[in-house]
Design brief:
Rossmann fold, five-stranded parallel beta sheet, 223 residues, 5 strands, alpha/beta, 8 helices
């Protein structure tokens, strides 16, 4: 069974992506990040998902992107609430964390090289999160080209890195249906950007609203 590094936030998308990688026969090494995010409760969800789905190993890296700030997720800036779908689709939202996926993929690439793995899975989605520049297909394609130029294993021809983005052009409803068919327990996951003190979702941030919309359009109950 080939090895794969799978980025896992504990949200619906990354959890579904991990389930897809496992279905495709990969031995999955889940990678999460404690990066100073206000919704750190997602790491508990990531641990639950990794254990339930059967990842080979779950590693949490500690980095301090909150030292830079620049995002509502890593600073005191307010998380936008109650925005319409049209508002979400316009511009780059304040919840964008500068260079986050570039940083996360760099860690995944390093671990993959050590594991002698050729495959990296990331649950980016360009349809519902079109405002995020590091979720676009052209970004992923460019990163993959760079990855094969930047590693010892790649230059020596021992590996050829492939970055898998199975959800990148899916609607949230399709992701929900795929996750259901894969047997993912939705109650294990966490999507909220600004959870309440006890960890419950706020229900009004972009992530909560997009999740709700996806479940409603899929006709599936979100537990």
């Amino acid at each position: 069974m080939p090895k794969a590094v799978c980025l896992l936030s504990g949200g619906l998308d990354s959890s579904t992506c991990l389930a897809i990688a496992l279905r495709e026969g990969y031995r999955c090494y889940a990678l999460s990040f404690d990066y100073g995010q206000r919704h750190k409760v997602e790491l508990e969800a990531a641990a639950r998902v990794a254990a339930r789905l059967g990842a080979e190993h779950h590693l949490v890296m500690h980095i301090s992107l909150d030292a830079f700030g620049g995002s509502a997720l890593t600073s005191s800036l307010a998380v936008p609430k109650a925005r319409s779908t049209a508002e979400m689709a316009h511009g780059i939202p304040i919840t964008y964390v500068p260079a986050r996926n570039t940083i996360f993929l760099s860690f995944a690439l390093a671990w993959a090289e050590v594991l002698e793995a050729c495959d990296i899975f990331i649950g980016v989605n360009a349809l519902d999160y079109s405002g995020y520049p590091d979720c676009r297909p052209e970004y992923i394609e460019a990163y993959q080209r760079m990855a094969n130029l930047a590693t010892k294993a790649g230059v020596e021809g021992r590996t050829r890195i492939r970055i898998h983005t199975p959800l990148i052009e899916w609607s949230k409803a399709r992701i929900v249906l795929e996750a259901r068919d894969l047997g993912l327990d939705f109650s294990l996951t966490h999507s909220c950007y600004d959870p309440l003190a006890e960890g419950r979702p706020c229900g009004q941030c972009d992530a909560c609203l997009l999740r709700r919309k996806g479940f409603e359009e899929a006709g599936v109950e979100d537990r």
